[in-house]
Write a structure and sequence with these properties.
Layout lengths: L2 H19 L3 H7 L5 E3 L5 E3 H10 L2 E14 L5 E12 L1
Antiparallel strand pairs: 1-2, 3-4
Length: 91
């Protein structure tokens, strides 16, 4: 996987964070796979649609940023991204 591809993945993740905070739900929907399974810190899981419903109706994200973000290539078209996600939100 080329560095430019890794840079694009990181850029897309930063777009995701911005879409959440700016409440741009259409942009966020376009960034998330329809096969998304989101696991919350409490262990409950959401599909893409239930996740979008939750963050648009139940919680307001005031700040969302990433630290120590790394992309580990697992082949030509697969990678794992990991790092800290820091959220500041209110219900």
């Amino acid at each position: 996987m080329h560095k430019s591809t890794i840079d694009q993945l990181i850029s897309l993740e930063l777009e995701r964070c911005h879409a959440v905070v700016s409440q741009d739900w259409e942009k966020l929907r376009s960034l998330l796979s329809d096969r998304l399974v989101h696991t919350h810190t409490r262990g409950n899981t959401d599909s893409r649609d239930s996740y979008l419903d939750y963050i648009s109706r139940v919680i307001e994200s005031l700040d969302l940023r990433r630290e120590d973000l790394r992309v580990v290539p697992l082949g030509n078209d697969c990678a794992v991204m990991h790092g800290k996600q820091i959220n500041r939100a209110r219900k």
